[in-house]
Design goal:
The protein is about 65% helix and about 5% strand. By secondary structure, the protein is mainly alpha-helical. β1 (about 150-155) and β2 (about 155-160) form a beta hairpin. The chain is globular, with a radius of gyration of 18 Å.
Length: about 170
C-alpha cells in the first residue's frame, strides 16, 4: 500500500540509481567549478581541459536518462515545461548572483525543450529504429557540442565555422 502511494511500484530503480549517481557527480563537478572559477581557489586537477570527460559524462547521462524516461511521463508537455521552468529559475539566479558565470542555456534547458519537441514529434519518432536513433543522437551531440564556441565539428576537427554575428545577441 505504501509503495503504491509513493508510486514506487512502477519506478525503474536502476534508472533512479543512475540518475542519483549522476546528480551527485554533477553537484561535485559544480562545487569544484565554483571553487576554481568563481572563488579563485587553486585546485590543480580541476581545469576545464582535465575534467572535460567528467562534464561530458554528466551531460550525456542526463540526456540519455531523460530520453529513456520520456515514455514514463504521463503528460509530456507539462513535464517539459516544469524542467524548462526550473532551468529558467537557475538562469535567473545565476544572472543575479554571478552574472559573469550566468547559465544561459544549460542541460536542463536542453532537456526541457527536448521533452516539449519530442511531444510534438513523438508519433514520427516512434517509427524510427531505436538503434538508428541512438547513433544519430551520438553523431548530433558530437557535431553540435562546440556550437557555443562558434563551430560545428567533432572534438578539434571543425566542419563549419559559425559567423560571429550569429552570437551578437
Amino acid at each position: 500500500m505504501l509503495l503504491k502511494k509513493l508510486n514506487l511500484e512502477k519506478r525503474n530503480h536502476y534508472i533512479d540509481m543512475i540518475r542519483g549517481i549522476s546528480l551527485i557527480s554533477m553537484i561535485l563537478y559544480h562545487l569544484f567549478y565554483d571553487l576554481v572559477y568563481v572563488f579563485n581557489k587553486n585546485i590543480d586537477f580541476y581545469r576545464l581541459n582535465n575534467v572535460k570527460p567528467w562534464q561530458l559524462s554528466i551531460c550525456i547521462t542526463f540526456i540519455l536518462i531523460s530520453g529513456i524516461s520520456f515514455n514514463f511521463y504521463k503528460n509530456h508537455r507539462k513535464q517539459g515545461l516544469i524542467v524548462f521552468g526550473i532551468s529558467l529559475l537557475i538562469s535567473l539566479i545565476t544572472y543575479i548572483f554571478i552574472p559573469e558565470e550566468a547559465v544561459k542555456f544549460g542541460v536542463l534547458s536542453l532537456i526541457g525543450a527536448s521533452i516539449i519537441i519530442m511531444d510534438l514529434l513523438n508519433k514520427f519518432l516512434n517509427k524510427l529504429n531505436p538503434y538508428f536513433g541512438f547513433i544519430l543522437f551520438i553523431i548530433l551531440f558530437l557535431v553540435f557540442y562546440n556550437l557555443p564556441y562558434g563551430t560545428l565539428g567533432v572534438s578539434n576537427v571543425e566542419i563549419v565555422d559559425i559567423p560571429d554575428y550569429v552570437y551578437s545577441n
